[in-house]
Structures are given as C-alpha cells and as structure tokens.
Amino acid sequence: MGDIILPHGGFRHLVVYKKSDVIYQGTVVFCRRFLPPYGDRTVDQMTQAARSCKQNIAEGSGTSGLSKETELKLTGVARATLDELLEDYLDYLKAHNGFEWTMNDPRKMNARQFAIQHSEWQDWKAIFETRPADTLCNMMIILIQQAKYLLEKMLQRQETEFMQHGGVRERMFMARTALRAAEWKQRCHDYLNQAADLQDLIAKAEEIKRAVDESVRQIKPQRGWE
C-alpha cells in the first residue's frame, strides 16, 4: 500500500529558495536606496513580486505532500513573478540611461560566476548596500535568470512526480483498494484455515471459487463486457 502523504518540506535547503531570498532581500535594499519611499507604486510591485517568488516556493514545498498539482502551480507562479521582476529591473535601466551587460562583458562573466558560487544573503548584503544602481540591476538580472533556470528544472521534476504519484484522491483510492484486497485475502485465509481436514479445505476453496465466479457472471453484463 503506497503512502498517501508523500515526503515534503525542506525548502530552506534548496538552492533556488536561497537565491530567491537573495533576490527578495536585494530588491528591498535596491528600492530603499534608489526609489522614492512614497508615491511610487513600483516599490510595492517590485518587493511583492520578489517576495511572491520566495513564498510560493516555500508554500509549494509545504503542500507537495498532499498535492503535487498544487505544488506544480505554485512553482509556476514563482517563475512568473520573476519574469515580472526582471522587467522592472530592465525598465529601471532604460529609464535611467543604463544598459544591460553584454554576454562577453567581463563584469557579466564575473558576476555570473559569483552568483553560481554564492547563494546566501550574507554574501550579497555588502554588494547591495554599496554598488551603484546600474551595477545592481545587472547583477539582479543575472540572479533572476539563474533562479528561473532552476525553477524550470524544478517544474520538470515536479511534472514527472505528478505523473508518477497522481493526486491525493488517487492515492487515497489506491490505498483503500489495496487495504480491502489485503483484508479479503486475510478473510479467505482465515476461512480456509478453519477446515477440519483436507477434504473440508478443498470444499471451502471450491465454495470461494463459486462465489467469485458468480460475482464475475453478474459484473460482466453490468459493465458490458460480454
């Protein structure tokens, strides 16, 4: 009988969650340093998008034990919020005469390597507190792209797990069916074990077989299998 509640949780150890936390914390610092504290909805939009990614990863991990479908949807939402946040950073660069680093720019190559090796906020805090806005925009673009890549991999894995395990209702049905089958086998064994001798054992086995055959004859026309 398979498990109904599957293993779940442990999201804090995921690299993609750690990167999403850096993205959120970095966005809060970026908005505090470079955007007006009042009267600009961009601040709320950016911080909410960054927070949504982190929170949906956490919620998806927590709910995966019961619903792989919900986990899959929440991971998709996390990825979508990163797309929204990415546009905000690109828009900031355009609005302030900045530009995105090219693929061959040494700054981009160095930043990508640093982002691959460092996924803890403490490794990034001093950078976001001191670097200029255009540098931070580009570093955040790199972080978001890496997180999106990891979320794509996570979505592929979750799709496979959903196909393998199905939903909780399906697992509950399979568990109940397996339990009933086990109970029926045990009842048959107990009944046969009451036999007084070999002839009685054979007679009881025939009785069970006749009952099964009768059920088959009744079910076949009901299902249209004749």
Largest sheet: none
Share in helix: over 70%
Q: What structural class results from the helix and strand content?
A: mainly alpha
Distance between the termini: 32 Å
How would you sum up the global shape?
Answer: rod-shaped
Rg estimate, integer Å: 29 Å
Strand tally, please?
0
Arithmetic mean of pLDDT: 86
Give the topology string: H per helix, E per strand. HHHHHHHH
- Count of domains: 2
Question: What does this molecule look like?
Answer:
The chain folds into two domains: 11-166, no CATH class; 172-223, no CATH class. It has eight helices and no strands. Helix 2 (41-63) packs antiparallel against helix 3 (68-95). With 226 residues, it is mostly helical. It is 78% helix and 0% strand. The mean pLDDT is 86. The chain is rod-shaped and about 95 Å long.
What would the keywords be for this entry?
8 helices, single chain, 78% helix, mainly alpha, 226 residues
Describe this structure in a few short sentences.
This protein has helices spanning 15-34, 41-63, 68-95, 106-117, 121-130, 133-165, 168-192, 198-223. The protein is mainly α.
